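Box 3.1 A note on notation
Throughout this textbook, protein chains are presented in two layers. The first layer is the amino acid sequence; the second is a token string describing backbone geometry. Keep the layers aligned when reading.
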Amino acid sequence: MKSSKVQFFLDETQDKLNPFSVLKSEIKPDNGWVNAIRVSIKMSLRQLGERLHITPQGVRDLEKREKEGAITINTLKEVGRVLDMDLVYGFISRHNSLEDMIEERAREIAEEVVLETIQLDNPGKSDNEIKKAIQQKTYEISSKMPSNLWD
């Protein structure tokens, strides 16, 4: 069983991630957020550049870096500041929760361990016995969260 400290931190982190899950289906604009906002509010490259103390070409480069995923968080924060906006960032899990992510990884490890053990020690086990052994090992691993969980 996870220690109460580990469980508390896991729950606290999950609570912080939950608001982002509604964004899972949102698609970022093709040319990036900076460009989309700038164009939407009819701000020219020159105008945004003046606010950022860079050239219009610098703004174009910044928008290109954002589109390519090569922009820094600090740069996005600064663009947000001059646009009177706040940058909000976070992670959106591909799982329903951190607990599910841990359990999926534990199941992967459990399958490897159980199948390897069965091949060596008891090759005659039924599918049902194997399934049950994997479930038990998954529970054990996800409860203990060993340091090698993510190796």
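The chain has a mean pLDDT of 94. The helical segments are 4-17, 33-40, 45-52, 56-68, 73-82, 98-121, 127-144.
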